[in-house]
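Worked example 3. Consider a protein that binds uracil.
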Amino acid sequence: MLIPRLIERKRDGLSLTGDEWRALVAGYVAGRVPDYQMSAMAMAVVWRGLEPGELAALTEAMLHSGAMLDFGDWSTPRVDKHSIGGVGDKTSLLLAPMVACLGVAVPMISGRGLGHTGGTLDKLEAIPGFNTRLSLGEAIAQVKKLGLVMLGQTPEICPADKKLYSLRDVTGTVESIPLISASIMSKKLAEGLSGLVLDIKTGSGAFITDPAQSQILAKTMIGIGEAHGCRTVALLTAMDRPLGIACGNALEVIESLEGLQGRGPADLMEVTYALAVEMLIVAGVDTDRAVARQRLEETVSSGRALQMFARMTEAQGGDPRVVSDYARLPRAPVTMEYRAVQDGVVCDIPPRKVGHAIIALGGGRSKTEDTIDPGVGIMLPAKPGLRVRRGDVLAVIHARTEADAERARTALDEAIVLAESATPLPLVSHRVTAAGVEVLIESSRA
Ligand code: URA
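Given these inputs, the predicted complex is written out as structure tokens:
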């Protein structure tokens, strides 16, 4: 098989056969297909897309390029949630222990911060000792014992995606619906799930900003999941402003622990419960959304979800005392308030600008090898639509040095826009299933 001929065919808008995709992926993982050819192919896909059969073959080839979490005949439903990435998005830390309290196992494989977005692994690793680098055997054993594990992608899972994703990241080939779908779904299907809930972010801070494209992405991923016997549903949620108040790893852990004690910010809790309800539905343990929501709220009010978080933390080598003693988490030495310079309504807080300000503080990465400072970040109590007076505190910067805090202050000058009015996106706007798209706007709060 001559790789240049395959690239030319895709470049010219023709299809490749399943065997050709399988051979290409196998050759790439084995090092026989060099990066320059694979990046040319990725760019051809960005422009030409993939036929459904090609997408299925590419996803299969990536899925089978490595190992899977094999639960054998264990019959407990297994469900995960995957977010396309956001700023301040710590829903995983809340919903995973809640759902695990209700007889649904959550084998959650998460990622690190990417671009302007934060990553669940970075947040968990803010907890002293927390180990996200478990082997597949350890992860399976913990899920069977506790019902919950949160770990990073292991070298055994989807090595083709690991290699291809790094290549796409530096060749301008991330923004492609078929490539994103194959990348995410191959990893999720490797978790041996019976159900999956996708959180597709919409708005200026999302990787895909056009709502129509977000729906196509959701439908594409749902198609792949359902074809593999994994019930898959997607919610479209707002990422035109950060979610919750805390942005930055340790700060987000604290906000999550507050949420697990019933004290989380309203927007964060709304999105968390919406996603968690869908997890219980796809798991098949609930059919009524209102009942599912009540059961989830009970895991919080009873303290069971918090206890589950502590047990998971301990099982993974972390200090479980953090759940009641936040002083055990890393903390930045400098805090600086950011105040409104005029009266007005908070109109816009672009997540990209906030995300980049956090990276500049040292709380995120510009290059994969960067180390991050888990203590830094920005608390953003201001939300679009909030009327403020001159001098009100809109944000609190947590920094390593005064100079870093000053730089973040300048970044916030650009990020926080005050005006006469604001029109934030609805928090949870659509539910997408194999049956179609349902508009939920009426039931969401901004
Ligand atoms: N996240 C992934 O895992 N893959 C993509 O292609 C994009 C976001």
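Take a moment to read the result before moving on. The first strand starts at residue 79 and ends at 83. Residues 165, 174, 179-180, 183-184 surround uracil (CB under 6 Å).
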